[in-house]
Write a structure and sequence with these properties.
The chain is an alpha/beta fold and 1572 residues long. Helices cover 35% and strands 19% of the residues. Helix 4 (92-111) packs antiparallel against helix 6 (139-155).
Length: 1572
C-alpha cells in the first residue's frame, strides 16, 4: 500500500514538473493560490475543445453562454468560435464573450478539484471573470456585461477601432526606444503604451495607421514587435466614444461584495465593498486606461500568493508571470495544453490538489554540482538520486538548460518555458540543442551520448532524462555526437555512429529556417512542408542534400514517397543503412514532401513532391501569398483564389524547368497543386514548351444608369408590398411570469411535450395538458372546471403532428385542416375570458413548423397548415391586446432547442411588438412588409394570358371578382369562367327575384317569418343569413345581365368550390367549352364578423372551408392542366390580423403559406406554376368591406383608406402580366390605427417609401432591393458592406461550379459592388454606371462552408465611387488565413440623368435570318460539366445561333421562380446578373467550338443597364467578338427585349482562357432555315 502511494506521489510530482509547477517543500505549502484570468489575444478556434472538455461545470457554463449570446447577438457562441456564424471569431462580440467563458470555465473546473483561490487577478478583459469568481457578479450577468462591452466597442466604426502591438524588449534600455517612438507619433493621433506586461514586454495601442508606423520605426531601431490579432486598440483613446455608452449599460446591473479578493487592473488595488459603486465608471474607463500588470503581481506577492494557476486559454498569463516572479518562492502552472493533450489538464489538477492538501511528501537530498557546491536552482527542489548519491535537482536541471538555451539563442529567458516544445514552440535547432545538452550533461557529470531522448520534447523532458540517468559516464557531446534532446530515438548507420532522430529533425528545421527566413518555431517537425509551410523544391533539395552530407547519408536514391514533413524526412534519413552520402543540391530534383519518383523520357527522376514544391514556390512568388498557405491539396481557385493567368504562368515556368511540354497536356481535372504535379510527372513524351500566357489586355465595359428609387405611385390609393423574412438579433426586456396554471396543447411527439412541460414548470407554472387532436366537446370538458380561472398561459403545439398531402385522395387533408382549426378555436374560446382577466401577465404561444418563417424561406418546405393557426392567433392578439402573444415557426422540430426558444419567447417582450417569430438554423427571424412596385419602366413587356384558353375564377359575379373578371374580358379579350354557389335559376328564388329593389329593402321581416315557418328549429341568425343569401342571388342576376350586355367573354357556372365533386364537374365544363384552362383565380370567401367568444365553430368552419378546401379542390381538379398561374385572393388581415375576423384571417393566412410552399415544393408543384396570394385591403364600392358597419369602423374610426376599384383592377392586371414572382403580395394604402408597428416599422407614415435602408444595427431592411448585402457599416472613407455566402441560402452556388466546386459568379461580384455603391450614394443621383470591373480571383465556396465577403466603397469625388470586394479566406479546417483577400474591384460613376433606351437597336424579327449554324446547348452543357458547370438556375437559354465566326445571337427567358436565394423570392437586381451570365454563354460556346478553350470573364468596362426584364419575358442577345488573342478575346454584348429595345449592353468584356479541350468541340449544327 505504501509503495503504491509513493508511486502515485511520484506520478503527481512528474505531472507537476511537466506542467511547470515548481514545488519547494510540499509539506509547507500554506501560502496563497492565485487564479489568473487573461484578456485579449488568447482566443482560438479550439478554445472550447481543449482543457475544458469533459468538465461538467465548464460544459454548463458554455451552454449558458450559447443561449445568452444567441439571444443577444443572434448566433451561438460555440458556432462563432468554430467559424460557423455570421461574425468571425475576431469580431468583438465573439472574441470577448469567448475569452470570458473559457477563463471562467477554467476556474470552475479547478474548483471541481477542490482548488479554491485566495486571490483573483484579471488582466484587462479577464477582470470580469475574476469578478464573477469572487461573487461580485453571477456568471450570466458577467457575460452580459462582456457582451455590452463588445457591442459598445463594435459600435465604433471598424476603421477607427485601432490596433495593438506587442513589443519584446531585449534589455532595459529599449523601453526608452519604445516611449520615444510612441511620443513621436502621438502628435498625429491617439497612440500610447497601453499595457506594461513585464520588464520585457509592453503593448502599444492606438490608431491602426499610427501603430503600424510605430512598428516600422521600432523595427528600424532593432526592437522586435508583433501585431496582435485583435483589431481593437484597447487601453487607448481610440475607444473614447465607447466609454460613456458602456458606463450607462453597466449602471443597470447590481453588484455584490466580493467573497474572494480581486485585484483591479485599472487602479492596481483591491476591489472591495467601498469600490462597488464606482465599478461602472472604473470598468468603462478600463477601455481607455493604461495599466501596469506588474502592479497586480506586486499586490499578489504582498498577499502571500506563492502559486498561480492560469485559468485561461493558451497559457498567456502563466508565461508573463513566470518571467517576473522568483521561481524559488513561487510556482506557476496553467490548464491549457492544447487539443492533443487535454487529458493532461486533469492530471495536473489532481496533482495540484494533492500538493495544496499537503499529501505529496518532499525529499531531503541536497543538490550539489560538479564543484561540490550546492546546485541551487529557483525551481521546486524535488530531488532524484544519481548513482553516486549526488543530488540532481529536477528544477535546477531545467533552469540550467533554459539558461544555456537562452545564452546560445539570444532568447529572453522568460520565453524559454520548461514545458514548451523546443522545436515546435521555440524553434531551437539541433546544433544548439546538442551544445546545450552536452554542456549541462558535463556540468552534471552525466554521459548523454547514449541516453534515450525519444520522448523528450521540451526542457522539462530533457531534464527528466538527465536526472533519471543512473549509470552513464559524463562526456562532452558538443560537436561530436549529433544528439538532440527532442525525440532521441537512436538508429545505427552503417558505421555504427548514433544518428539521433530528433537531432536530424532539428538539423533539418534549422536548415529550412536558414534558407526560408522563417522563424524556427514555425517549422514544426510534423507540419507538411508543402501544404502547411510552402517550402519549395529548391530549398528542400538544398536542405536534404546538406543534412545528408552532415550525416554521411547518400540521399540521391532514397525513397521519400511518404515523407511529407521534417519528421518524415528525418525518419528516411535515419533509416538509411547502406546508402552513400552525396550532396543532392542542384543535381537531384528531390523534395522531401512525397517523393514518388516517375521517369521522364530521358530517364531523369522527376520527384512528385519536388514538382509540387516547385509549383507552390512559383505560385507564392506570383501571388505574394505566404508559402505555407499554398497547401498542395487545396483547390487553387476555390480555396486559394489563384486566377487562370497566374496558373498558366506557373505551369509554363515549372514545365520549362522540368523539361516538360505543357502546351497540349490536359489540366481540365487538375484542381490543386498536387493535381497539376500529377499531370506534369505523368507526361512521358512531351516536348518542353513555355505555356506562359500573354497578359490580359485592357478592355472596356460600362453599366448603365441604375436607380433604387421607387416608381411614383403618389396617385394610387393603394400600393404594392411584399413580406420578407428579416433576421433579428435583439430581444426586448424580460417580463415576469406569475405562478399559475398553463394549458399545454400537445404535439404528437411526446418528447417535445416533455421538453416544453419542463420549461413551463421551471417558470412556476402548473401544466394542464389537452390533446392536440381533441374534439370540441373534449376541449370543453377539459376546460370546464373552476381551475380554468388560474390559467394565465397557453402553449399550443397542436399543429406539430403529421398531416396529409394536399394532393392526396379523399378528405384526409381537409380533415387535418378542420381538426387543427377546431383545436385552436376551441381552446381560444374556452380561455378567452380568463386570459383577458390576466391582462399583460397572460401569454399565448403557438408553435408551427411551416419552414422557419411562415413558409418564406426556401431552405425547407414546411407544413402550411401552420398558417391557419398563425392567422387565427394574429386576430386573437388584436382582440386581447394586453396579452403577450407569439407565433413561433421552426424549420426543424428538435425538442430541446424548441423548448429553449419557447422559454426565450415567453420571458421576453418584443422590441417592435413582433408576434410572428421564426427560427431557421438556430437564427431568429421576423417579417417585414416592404414596398416593391412591379415595374419602374414604361418599356416593360407585359406577359399576357393566352386568349386561346380560359381563366377560371371562383367567388361568383359580385364584388372584387366581378371587377377583375371584367378587366380580363374587356381589356385583354380573355374568356373567363365564374364559379359561384348562388343559382340564378333556383325555382325557390323566383318569387323573391320579382321584388323591386325598394320592396326588397323592406322584405327582411317577411323572409324571416317564412323561414321560421319552413324551419322552426332555425336560429334568428340563420334566418338572417337566408335573407342575405337571397340578396346575393338578386345581385347575381343583376350583375350577369350587366356583364352580358358588356361582353360575351364571361360565363357563369354554379359551383360550391368547397365541394370536390362540383369543382370537378365545373372544370370539365370549362374544358369542353374553351379547350383548356390557362389560369385559376380563387377569389371565393365568406364574411364573418365578431369577437371569438361570440362565434360558433360550425359557422366559422364554413369560412375556412371556402378558402382552404376550395383551394385544394381547384388544385386537384386542374392537376393535369398547363396553368400559367394559380392566384388566390386573400386579405391583408391574413398577414396583419384583424380583430373580429378570426376565421377569415385564418383562411387568408393559410392561402398565403400555401402559395409560399407550393411555389417551391417539387412534390406538390411539379409543373413549377407560379402560386400567388394577393392580399387586398378593403376595396371601395365593392366587396365585403363596403358593409356600412365595417366602413364606420375601418374608415371613420380607424382612418383606413379604401382602395379604388380602378387601382385594384390595375394591381390585378399588373400582377398577372408583370409580377407573379412573389408568392405573397399585399396591396394597401393608409392603414390608420390598423398599421402593425411590428411588420412595417421601417416605412414612412404614408407607407410608400422606406424611412431608412438599414436598421439601427446596420442590417439591410429591403433585402429584395439589396439581395447581396446583409448589413452595412460606415467607415471614415465611406461604407463597408458584408454578405455571408453559403449554399443553403445562396441556392445558385451549387449550380455554378468550376471544376466541381461552387464558385461565386463574376456577375454577382458586379452586383454586390454596385449595391454597395448605391447604398453609399443614397438618393442624390439619377443613375449609376460602371467605369471598370476587374475580376482578380475565383471565389470558391466549399460545401456547407459560410464565406464572408466585404465590399469597401469610398467616394473619390462627387461623381466617382470606388469599390473593392474581399473575402475572409479560411482553410478547410476553418482557420482564417487572410481576413481580407482581394477578389475584385470596380469603379462607378454617378449620373445626373438616367439612361433610357430611345429606340430599338436590334431587328428581333429578322435576327436569325442569316445564321449559319445552331449551337447544341445541351451538348455544350454536357461537354463542360466537368470543368465549368451550369445548373438549372443558370440555364435560361432557349437557342443560340452562329451568324459568322464572330457573332452569336440567341433567345432566353427567365422563369417565374428562379429560386436563387432561400430568403429573397424576387430579387430586384441592379445589373441583370443572370441575364448577362446567360448571354455571356454565347461567348463560351463560340470559344469552345472555335478553339476548344474554356474562358471566363476577367475585366469589364462600360456596361449599361436600361431595365430588368419581367419574369417569363422573352429576351434576345447578341455577342460580337471585337478582337481575338491567344489566351482569349474581347467581346461586346447587347441584350434586348422582344421589341428590340436594350435591356443592357456591355463593351470590351475581356474573357481569358483557363483551360482547353484536346480539340475544338463539335457543338454546332448547320442550318439553312431562318429561325426565331
Amino acid at each position: 500500500m505504501e509503495a503504491n502511494l509513493q508511486a502515485y506521489e511520484k506520478d503527481m510530482i512528474r505531472e507537476l514538473r511537466q506542467a511547470g509547477v515548481l514545488v519547494s517543500d510540499t509539506q509547507s505549502v500554506v501560502g496563497g493560490l492565485g487564479f489568473l484570468f487573461p484578456g485579449h489575444g488568447t482566443h482560438s478556434s479550439t478554445m472550447f475543445n481543449t482543457y475544458l472538455k469533459g468538465s461538467p461545470s465548464a460544459g454548463k457554463l458554455i451552454e449558458m453562454a450559447d443561449e445568452v449570446v444567441n439571444e443577444r447577438c443572434g448566433f451561438r457562441l460555440t458556432d462563432a468560435v468554430r467559424g460557423n456564424a455570421r461574425f468571425p471569431i475576431e469580431h468583438p462580440c465573439v472574441t470577448q464573450p469567448a475569452i470570458f467563458t473559457a477563463a471562467l470555465g477554467g476556474a470552475l473546473m479547478a474548483e471541481e478539484y477542490s482548488l479554491y483561490p485566495s486571490l483573483l487577478v484579471g488582466h484587462s478583459l479577464g477582470e470580469y471573470a475574476a469578478l464573477v469568481c469572487s461573487g461580485v457578479l453571477t456568471a450570466e450577468t458577467g457575460l452580459r456585461m462582456v457582451i455590452d462591452r463588445a457591442e459598445c466597442v463594435a459600435d465604433v466604426p471598424q476603421d477607427r477601432r485601432g490596433a495593438m502591438l506587442a513589443v519584446l524588449l531585449d534589455d532595459d534600455t529599449q523601453i526608452a526606444v519604445v516611449r520615444r517612438a510612441v511620443a513621436a507619433h502621438a502628435s498625429r493621433g491617439a497612440i500610447s503604451v497601453g499595457v506594461i506586461n513585464s520588464p520585457r514586454q509592453v503593448v502599444v495601442s492606438g490608431e491602426h495607421e499610427l501603430v503600424i508606423s510605430c512598428r516600422e520605426e521600432l523595427k528600424r531601431s532593432g526592437v522586435s514587435s508583433t501585431l496582435l490579432p485583435i483589431g481593437v486598440g484597447f487601453h487607448s483613446a481610440v475607444l473614447a466614444e465607447a466609454v460613456a455608452p458602456f458606463e450607462e449599460r453597466l449602471k443597470q446591473y447590481s453588484w455584490t461584495a466580493p467573497m474572494t479578493p480581486v485585484v483591479s487592473s485599472v487602479f492596481g488595488g483591491y476591489v472591495d465593498s467601498d469600490s462597488l459603486e464606482a465599478l461602472p465608471s472604473l470598468l468603462a474607463a478600463q477601455l481607455i486606461t493604461q495599466f501596469d500588470f506588474r502592479n497586480s503581481l506586486k499586490v499578489a506577492q504582498d498577499a502571500g500568493v506563492d502559486m498561480y494557476l492560469d485559468c485561461g486559454p493558451r497559457s498567456v498569463l502563466s508565461k508573463l508571470v513566470s518571467s517576473q516572479v522568483n521561481l524559488g518562492d513561487v510556482s506557476v502552472t496553467h490548464l491549457d495544453y492544447g487539443p492533443a493533450h487535454a487529458d493532461r489538464t486533469r492530471d495536473v489538477l489532481t496533482a495540484l490538489s494533492w500538493v495544496r492538501a499537503g499529501s505529496v511528501a518532499p525529499t531531503d537530498v541536497e543538490v550539489v554540482d560538479a564543484q561540490g557546491e550546492v546546485f541551487e536552482a529557483p525551481g521546486s527542489g524535488v530531488v532524484e538520486e544519481t548513482r553516486d548519491g549526488a543530488g540532481v535537482d529536477m528544477d535546477a536541471v531545467c533552469t540550467a538548460l533554459r539558461e544555456a538555451f537562452a545564452e546560445r539563442t539570444g532568447y529572453p529567458l522568460e520565453l524559454i518555458e520548461a514545458d514548451l516544445d523546443l522545436e515546435a514552440d521555440l524553434g531551437i535547432d539541433s546544433v544548439k540543442r546538442v551544445e546545450v545538452v552536452g554542456h549541462v550533461g558535463e556540468v552534471l557529470g552525466v554521459d548523454v551520448k547514449e541516453l534515450d531522448f525519444s520522448q523528450a520534447l521540451s526542457v522539462s523532458d530533457i531534464a527528466e532524462v538527465l536526472v533519471g540517468s543512473q549509470t552513464v559516464e559524463v562526456v562532452d557531446a558538443q560537436g561530436e555526437v549529433f544528439e538532440a534532446p527532442g525525440s532521441g530515438v537512436v538508429e545505427e548507420t552503417r558505421d555504427g555512429a548514433g544518428v539521433d532522430m530528433d537531432a536530424v529533425c532539428t538539423a533539418l528545421r534549422e536548415a529550412f529556417a536558414e534558407r526560408t527566413g522563417y522563424p524556427l518555431e514555425l517549422i514544426e517537425a510534423d507540419l507538411d512542408l508543402e501544404a502547411d509551410l510552402g517550402i519549395d523544391s529548391v530549398k528542400r533539395v538544398e536542405v536534404v542534400g546538406h543534412v545528408g552530407e552532415v550525416l554521411g547519408v547518400d540521399v540521391k536514391e532514397l525513397d521519400f514517397s511518404q515523407a511529407l514533413s521534417v519528421s518524415d524526412i528525418a525518419e528516411v534519413l535515419v533509416g538509411s543503412q547502406n546508402v552513400e552520402v552525396a550532396d543532392a543540391q542542384g543535381e537531384v530534383f528531390e523534395a522531401p514532401g512525397s517523393g514518388v519518383v516517375e521517369e521522364t523520357r530521358d530517364g531523369a527522376g522527376v520527384d512528385m513532391d519536388a514538382v509540387c514544391t516547385a509549383l507552390r514556390e512559383a505560385f507564392a512568388e506570383r501571388t505574394g501569398y505566404p508559402l505555407e498557405l499554398i497547401e498542395a491539396d487545396l483547390d487553387l481557385e476555390a480555396d486559394l483564389g489563384i486566377d487562370s493567368v497566374k496558373r498558366v504562368e506557373v505551369v509554363g515556368h515549372v514545365g520549362e524547368v522540368l523539361g516538360v511540354d505543357v502546351k497540349e497536356l490536359d489540366f481540365s481535372q487538375a484542381l490543386s497543386v498536387s493535381d497539376i504535379a500529377e499531370v506534369l510527372v505523368g507526361s512521358q513524351n512531351v516536348e518542353v514548351a513555355d505555356a506562359q500566357r500573354t497578359e490580359a489586355g485592357a478592355s472596356d465595359a460600362q453599366l448603365d444608369s441604375v436607380t433604387i428609387k421607387y416608381e411614383d405611385e403618389s396617385s394610387r390609393t393603394a400600393h404594392r408590398y411584399v413580406p420578407q423574412s428579416v433576421r433579428i438579433k435583439s430581444l426586448g426586456a424580460e417580463r415576469t411570469i406569475l405562478p399559475g396554471d398553463a394549458i399545454l396543447v400537445t404535439a404528437a411527439d411526446q418528447s417535445v411535450n416533455d421538453a416544453v412541460r419542463k420549461v413551463l414548470e421551471e417558470l412556476s407554472l402548473t401544466v394542464i395538458e389537452i390533446p392536440g387532436d381533441a374534439s370540441e366537446a373534449t376541449i370543453k370538458r377539459l376546460t370546464s372546471s373552476d381551475r380554468l380561472r388560474r390559467v394565465s398561459t397557453v402553449v399550443d403545439l397542436s399543429v406539430l403532428r403529421p398531416h396529409a398531402d394536399i394532393l392526396s385522395e379523399g378528405d384526409a387533408w381537409w380533415q387535418d385542416v378542420e381538426g387543427q382549426y377546431t383545436t385552436v378555436f376551441s381552446v381560444a374560446q374556452a380561455t378567452y375570458e380568463t386570459l383577458q382577466s390576466h391582462g399583460e401577465h397572460a401569454s399565448w404561444i403557438s408553435v408551427t413548423s411551416s419552414g422557419g418563417m411562415s413558409g418564406m424561406d426556401l431552405r425547407t418546405v414546411g407544413d402550411p397548415i401552420g398558417g391557419l393557426t398563425a392567422g387565427f392567433v394574429k386576430t386573437l392578439a388584436l382582440e386581447l391586446r394586453q396579452m403577450h402573444t407569439r407565433i413561433v415557426d421552426f424549420d426543424v422540430v428538435e425538442p430541446s432547442s424548441l423548448a429553449g426558444a419557447l422559454r426565450t419567447e415567453l420571458t421576453h417582450k418584443a422590441v417592435n411588438e413582433e408576434i410572428e417569430i421564426g427560427y431557421i438554423e438556430g437564427d431568429r427571424y421576423t417579417v417585414r412588409v416592404l414596398p416593391v412596385p412591379v415595374s419602374s419602366s414604361d418599356r416593360a413587356v407585359r406577359q399576357s394570358l393566352s386568349t386561346d384558353s380560359c381563366v377560371v375564377m371562383s367567388g361568383g359575379s359580385r364584388g372584387i371578382v366581378r371587377e377583375c373578371a371584367l378587366a380580363l374580358a374587356e381589356q385583354r379579350n380573355i374568356p373567363v369562367v365564374l364559379l359561384g354557389r348562388s343559382d340564378p335559376d333556383d325555382p325557390e328564388m323566383k318569387p323573391w327575384l320579382a321584388y323591386s329593389d325598394e320592396d326588397w329593402a323592406n322584405a327582411r321581416a317577411e323572409v324571416m317569418r317564412q323561414g321560421r315557418t319552413r324551419r322552426p328549429e332555425a336560429s334568428v341568425a340563420e334566418l338572417s343569413d337566408e335573407y342575405r343569401r337571397i340578396t346575393y342571388t338578386r345581385q347575381l342576376v343583376t350583375n350577369l345581365a350587366d356583364i352580358e350586355s358588356r361582353t360575351d367573354k364571361i360565363h357563369y357556372l354554379v359551383c360550391d368550390v368547397s365541394d370536390p365533386d362540383q369543382v370537378d364537374k365545373a372544370m370539365a365544363q370549362a374544358r369542353s367549352r374553351f379547350g383548356k384552362i390557362g389560369a385559376i383565380v380563387h377569389g371565393a370567401g365568406l364574411e364573418s364578423f365578431g369577437a371569438i367568444p361570440r362565434k360558433s365553430l360550425k359557422k366559422t368552419a364554413k369560412a375556412i372551408a371556402v378558402k382552404a378546401r376550395g383551394f385544394q379542390n381547384l388544385l386537384r381538379a386542374t392537376a393535369e392542366d398547363d396553368l400559367s398561374a394559380f392566384i388566390s385572393f386573400g386579405s391583408i388581415s391574413g398577414r396583419f390580423g384583424m380583430d373580429g375576423q378570426s376565421d377569415y384571417t385564418a383562411g387568408a393566412s393559410l392561402l398565403a403559406q400555401m402559395a409560399h410552399i407550393m411555389s417551391r415544393s417539387q412534390s406538390q408543384n411539379p409543373r413549377t406554376i407560379p402560386f400567388i396570394t394577393m392580399e387586398w385591403t378593403a376595396w371601395g364600392e365593392v366587396g365585403m368591406a363596403t358593409n356600412p358597419e365595417v366602413v364606420s369602423v375601418q374608415a371613420n374610426e380607424r382612418g383606413m383608406t379604401y382602395m379604388s376599384v380602378a387601382d385594384g383592377v390595375r394591381h390585378f392586371i399588373d400582377e398577372i402580366e408583370l409580377g407573379t414572382a412573389n408568392p405573397e403580395v399585399l396591396y394597401f394604402g393608409e392603414l390608420g390605427k390598423n398599421r402593425p408597428a411590428a411588420q412595417v416599422p421601417e416605412l414612412t407614415k404614408s407607407g410608400t417609401q422606406l424611412s431608412a435602408l438599414m436598421d439601427k444595427s446596420g442590417m439591410i431592411v429591403n433585402r429584395s432591393s439589396f439581395p447581396m448585402v446583409d448589413y452595412a457599416e460606415t467607415t471614415e472613407s465611406g461604407l463597408q458592406t458584408t454578405r455571408v455566402l453559403w449554399t443553403e441560402r445562396d441556392r445558385y452556388l451549387p449550380d455554378h461550379l468550376v471544376k466541381g466546386t461552387a464558385t461565386f459568379p463574376g456577375v454577382l461580384h458586379f452586383e454586390t459592388q454596385i449595391e454597395t455603391a448605391l447604398l453609399l450614394a443614397g438618393d442624390q443621383y439619377a443613375g449609376i454606371e460602371l467605369d471598370q470591373l476587374d475580376l482578380q480571383t475565383f471565389l470558391k465556396c466549399r460545401d456547407r462552408d459560410r464565406v464572408t465577403i466585404h465590399v469597401d466603397a469610398k467616394r473619390v469625388d462627387e461623381k466617382r465611387i470606388d469599390t473593392e470586394l474581399t473575402s475572409v479566406f479560411r482553410t478547410p479546417g476553418g482557420y482564417v488565413l487572410d481576413p481580407r483577400r482581394p477578389q475584385s474591384s470596380a469603379t462607378f460613376r454617378l449620373l445626373d440623368e438616367p439612361v433610357s433606351a430611345k429606340e430599338p437597336v436590334l431587328d428581333v424579327e429578322h435576327i436569325f435570318d442569316d445564321v449559319i449554324g445552331e449551337f447544341d446547348i445541351d451538348k455544350y452543357y454536357a461537354l463542360t460539366d466537368s470543368f465549368i458547370s451550369f445548373g438549372p438556375t443558370f440555364r435560361y437559354l432557349n437557342s443560340a445561333f452562329l451568324v459568322d465566326e464572330n457573332i452569336v445571337v440567341g433567345e432566353l427567358q427567365i422563369p417565374g421562380i428562379p429560386g436563387l436565394f432561400s430568403d429573397v423570392a424576387d430579387p430586384n437586381f441592379r445589373c441583370n446578373p443572370i441575364l448577362v451570365d446567360n448571354v455571356g454563354r454565347f461567348a463560351l460556346m463560340r470559344q469552345l467550338w472555335r478553339n476548344g478553350q474554356y474562358v471566363v470573364p476577367t475585366q469589364m468596362k462600360n456596361a449599361r443597364m436600361y431595365r430588368c426584364p419581367q419574369v417569363r419575358e422573352r429576351c434576345f442577345g447578341k455577342m460580337t467578338v471585337l478582337e481575338d488573342y491567344e489566351d482569349g478575346f474581347d467581346m461586346r454584348l447587347d441584350i434586348v427585349d422582344e421589341n428590340g429595345y436594350l435591356l443592357c449592353s456591355g463593351e470590351h468584356i475581356r474573357l481569358t482562357a483557363i483551360g482547353s479541350m484536346p480539340e475544338p468541340a463539335d457543338i454546332l449544327s448547320n442550318t439553312t432555315s431562318p429561325r426565331i
